[in-house]
Amino acid sequence: MWSTRYESDGLVLRAWEPGDGPALTAAKRASYEHLKPWMPWAEADPDEVAEEKRVRLFAGKWLIGEDALVSLWTPDGTFLGGSGFHPRDGDYETRQAEIGMWIAGPAAGQGVGTRALRAMLRWGFGSWGFLRLSWICNSANLGSRRVAEKAGMLLEGTRRGTYDDVTKGRRDELLFAALASEWRDPEGLPLPEPA
């Protein structure tokens, strides 16, 4: 089965666990203004009970192999955001996935997203054995674009006029990808061994 934890570059990436709800609630409250232009699920005052249910659902999806939702932490236990290897751009059997990510407002703009994406690529191409990993972002989200570029992903193109869950209108999205056979870690860190 999938490895549930990976530590790299001062970050801990792990599966969500029961009890993570309060950290998610606090981060969503502190991040609303930062996230609302990009994330349809952003809310100003999330309910802690609902968020605990949400992290338990995330943990369950991991256990049954439906979606690999990842939480991001510092080694001392500060919650930084969420990510995942999502089967939206293929599936796990074909060894490809889309990496999604959000960084909590207090940690944004400090290089956490870039470090986290590099760690996800290392973990994905190493322990998980993915052959292709993609990253899709709103073309207006310059921070997300820079994260992909700094992590060594290549721009493959623009998906024009896709539906925007946030504005309920249309937008252009940028599609970045990396292949296991070509990607080189900008930091030169080794890939973890397959589990």
Provide an overview of this structure:
With 195 residues, the protein is an alpha+beta fold. The chain has one domain (5-179): 3-Layer(aba) Sandwich (Aminopeptidase). It contains 4 helices and 8 strands; from the N terminus they run E-E-H-H-E-E-E-H-E-H-E-E. The protein has an 8-stranded mixed β-sheet with strand order 1-2-3-4-5-6-8-7, sandwiched between helices. Helix 1 crosses helix 2 (48-63). The radius of gyration is 16 Å and the shape is globular. It starts with a strand and ends in a 16-residue tail after the last strand. The model has no long low-confidence stretch (mean pLDDT 91).
Global shape:
globular
At CATH level 3, the topology is Aminopeptidase
Distance between the termini: 8 Å
In the CATH hierarchy, what is the superfamily? Gcn5-related N-acetyltransferase (GNAT)
Provide the β-strand percentage band. 25-35%
The helix tally amounts to: 4
Helix vs. strand class: alpha+beta
Count of distinct structural domains: 1
Please specify the SSE layout and strand pairing:
Layout: E1 5-8, E2 11-15, H1 21-35, H2 48-63, E3 68-73, E4 79-86, E5 96-103, H3 112-125, E6 132-138, H4 142-150, E7 154-163, E8 170-179
Parallel strand pairs: 5-6
Antiparallel strand pairs: 1-2, 2-3, 3-4, 4-5, 6-8, 7-8
Short description:
About 30% of the residues lie in helices and about 30% in strands. With about 200 residues, the protein is α+β, with helices and mostly antiparallel strands.
Offer a few descriptive terms:
195 residues; Aminopeptidase; alpha+beta; 30% strand; globular; 4 helices
